[in-house]
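Quick one, T. Sequence first:
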Amino acid sequence: MHRVLAVYNNNIFDLSDYLQTLADNNGGAGYNFLDDDLVALFKQQPGQDITKSADQVYASMDANKASTTKICLNNLFYVGQTDFRKGARCQIPNYLLLGFSALIALTIVAKCNYPGLSLA
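Structure tokens:
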């Protein structure tokens, strides 16, 4: 069976084992404890961000069931967080360092090529 992963609020959840257990036990009532609409989201959009759609599913539930489902997802199916290193908060410092390094390198080249050059 293929992996059934999805992203909710920058957290990655894997329902693969849950779905495999349901399949092995013919959807037995004792094994089917997650909301069917939420499980359908994972199946329909594997590997994608389902935050907006899942929030709509949670809004259709009563507050207690939504809270219980979120706790269950976090405790049983959480695998990690998305990679934030490609975001602006991590890329801007890299570009600043690159810019300052280029400025220093240009200064060194200018001083070596023109020893009498005063930059002060």
